[in-house]
Specification:
Two copies of one chain form a homodimer. The first copy, chain A, is of the alpha/beta class. In chain A, helix 2 crosses helix 7 and helix 10 packs parallel to helix 11. The first copy, chain A, has 14 helices and 16 strands. Chain A folds into two domains: about 220 residues, Aldehyde Dehydrogenase, Chain A, domain 1, CATH 3.40.605; about 140 residues, 3-Layer(aba) Sandwich (Aldehyde Dehydrogenase, Chain A, domain 2), CATH 3.40.309. In chain A, the strands form four sheets. A seven-stranded parallel sheet of chain A has the order 10-9-11-8-7-12-13, with helices on both faces. The termini of chain A are far apart. The relative contact order of chain A is 0.13. At the A-B interface, helix 1, helix 10, helix 14, strand 13 and strand 16 of A face helix 1, helix 10, helix 14, strand 13 and strand 16 of B.
Chain lengths: ~425, ~425
């Protein structure tokens, strides 16, 4: 394997500002080549990268063992250790994910709109790469490969900043990605991993590396996202919270509501699309509230409810004001009885995080209003909030889910990692 | 006419921070109503606003006379006075522009993409308003009406900050727009004009008014755009420079090249899409350079050229390095002979501003490469750069032209003033 070192290993870590400036300049220099690369070249690079990841398996595991030892020594939680841990099966999964991204349709050059003007001009809106994407992540080393692959597939250069705890593992993966680029004749610097644990690197990235960075994507916990959203001087694709709601409307079938609520809350509790609050319409509280609440409790979910909810099952504890705004990311749900559609929408708008919210009802007019008036990135009718995922949308991978309204909203896949330009085709037209 | 005052006239101008905070809160409060307004209500508001502008004609002229008197007293240039000046015909033009915007298709709710998933989920990407748009402009009072109308048509609330010199005129126009909103049952605060000349208002808007502002649009000269791009803590739709190029390739027909070059440079020299540099291929310099340069000179354009260009006509002065990066916005053009397509593309990428650039050639392979490799918002083949205009693209109006790659690039019309959400339609699907 022809590994291309991530950066000169003798880079003086103390001059972090200088190091980051160099990384920015190298990204800009490589960006044009990856922007203009033929789909075949990008795909060849990604396939070679996947092969290099497999070939580097033993090196990845060795680096991961060192990272894990440090993490254990510093007393990290079991959940943290699990996020950091790679196994041969997980490494195979990482390689497969890169191959899957290679197999996606190429988003660059796609004609998004075509306008024919009375003067004969043909104006095409054509997808183009965004430029240089900075990804700041924490313990999961697989992000090196899949965020990197999504950036490259969409013609962007990537600057990756791994968590301190996963730097050794991420470095081996980044080297494999870079060797894939080089073997396809593309500049290895289209993917760079910051080779430093210095936290000042993050500040430099958020400042944009002297204009080199076009967008920042934080991948990690709330404190990381908060810092990035607060300090970034460049656009950010992110969501801070996923305080998602399921509203069981008066027109809801109980069986469907139960299946959706259980899935939305409990399929996986740690994902951003998991439901955190259940709203039940007063009109069906008599028939639906107790079965829904008991089903949750029986499935091992703690329930915090308003007065009416507490009366249906004595295992329900009291919900306080803060519960309505809390993303538990755990087997806990807040439950409230609402007076109808208006109150439900008002509750979601007041306490929600504009991420993903669902209504369960057979009443299509009510559904239409909920979908129109809830101002969230994803609104669902009769489906689980856990579908909030780029893969489930058919995007074949996502770099994250965005709740901002600028550029990309919802799952950010390769199409959303693109901008566009206008291509105007004339036959000598001049403007009167 | 039931004029709704822009803001309480007793607002203490000295507490500009408090005033701006109030404006932000009012915009947020009004934003939801305009976001959810039916197309008919928005159109009724705009038609009523146009009628109110006509009815307010004498008041507009009276306010404009005061603004003009102050501008003349403070020694403003004739060009400045002309931008500020309104006449009955110009007022009629403003009213008509608002009516034209009313007649555009409603961009909100448009289904931008539709995905059917194997599990039966139907996922629709649907256009939604961006939120609250802050527009900062200078002397042209018509911006009050047309930028405001574009924001309202796209379901956004607008906060407008007029130039100090045009505040009286803009206030009367803003009141007419607000009366149109009120008469259609929409909140007048969906359009607010900052009632203060205090420059601190601009700083508050650039800071985002405590999260109330979603995007800032500067409409004015380079120093305004520079300040907005430097200081804004929210996204900006703008372009700093329009250093546009026409490249006459080896495969160019001389007649077509001459018509395009003259139009691109001289149709109007003060617009951002006017050409500032002409690149002529060495392969056709012998036949094309002198006719093109002499045609420009004969039409009254000053030409600054490289050595080869100076030799074809003794009226050509010497181009210095700074000329290649200059947006003259005047009857001046820089002319350079280039060795071929690669050198032309490299020149445009090095000195251009990623706004609008054109190639003239009958060679379609060369055109394809130029259009693909020049990383500008608008790239044209065999057409004048002066088509860089939302109206010419069929957008029916634009709030400006953006050269950033995030969200909107090129002319920013009502569709570009929208974000989107995902509407997921299910039949009880849960995620495995």
């Amino acid at each position: 394997m022809n590994v291309v070192a991530t950066v000169p290993k003798d880079a003086a870590e103390t001059d972090i500002a200088g190091l980051m400036r160099q990384i920015g300049l190298r990204a800009k220099a490589a960006q044009r080549a990856i922007m203009l690369a033929a789909p075949e070249a990008k795909n060849a690079a990604l396939m070679a990268a996947a092969a290099a990841i497999r070939e580097a398996g033993p090196a990845v595991l060795a680096a991961n063992a060192l990272d894990l030892a440090d993490a254990r020594a510093s007393g990290q939680t079991a959940a943290f250790i699990d996020r950091l841990l790679l196994t041969p099966a997980r490494i195979e999964g990482i390689a497969c994910a890169v191959e899957e991204i290679a197999s996606l349709p190429d988003p660059v050059g796609k004609v998004l709109a075509r306008i024919e003007r009375p003067n004969g001009l043909v104006i095409e809106r054509v997808a183009t790469p965004l430029g240089v994407i900075a990804v700041i992540f924490e313990s999961r080393p697989n992000v090196t490969a899949d965020a990197g692959a999504l950036c490259l597939k969409s013609g962007n250069a990537a600057i990756l900043r791994a968590g301190s705890d996963s730097l050794r593992t991420s470095s081996v993966l980044a080297d494999a990605m870079r060797s894939g680029l080089a073997s396809a004749g593309l500049p290895a610097d289209a993917l760079q991993l910051v080779p430093s644990r210095d936290r000042a690197a993050v500040g430099a990235m958020l400042a944009g590396l002297d204009g080199a960075v076009d967008v920042v994507v934080p991948r990690g916990g709330k404190s990381l996202v908060e810092r990035v959203q607060r300090d970034a001087r460049v656009p950010v694709f992110a969501h801070l919270d996923g305080n998602c709601h399921v509203y069981v409307h008066a027109g809801a079938d109980l069986g469907m509501a139960r299946a959706i609520v259980l899935n939305a809350k409990l399929r996986r509790t740690g994902v951003c699309g998991s439901a955190e609050t259940l709203l039940v319409d007063r009109a069906v509280a008599e028939t639906h509230l107790q079965p829904l609440v008991s089903a949750l409790l029986d499935a091992g979910c703690a329930v915090r409810g308003d007065d009416q909810t507490r009366r249906v099952d004595n295992r329900v504890s009291e919900a306080i004001e803060a519960d309505w705004g809390t993303e538990y990311l755990d087997a806990i749900i807040a439950v409230k009885v609402v007076g109808g559609l208006d109150e439900a929408i008002a509750h979601v708008e007041r306490y929600g995080s504009h991420h993903t919210d669902a209504i369960v009802t057979a009443d299509s007019a009510a559904a239409r209003r909920f979908l129109a008036e809830v101002d969230s990135a994803i609104v669902l009718h009769n489906a689980s909030t856990q579908f909030a995922d780029g893969g489930e949308f058919g995007f074949g991978g996502e770099i994250g889910i965005a709740t901002g309204r600028m550029h990309a909203r919802g799952p950010v896949g390769v199409e959303q990692l693109c901008s566009y330009k206008y291509r105007v085709l004339g036959a000598g037209q001049i403007r009167p």
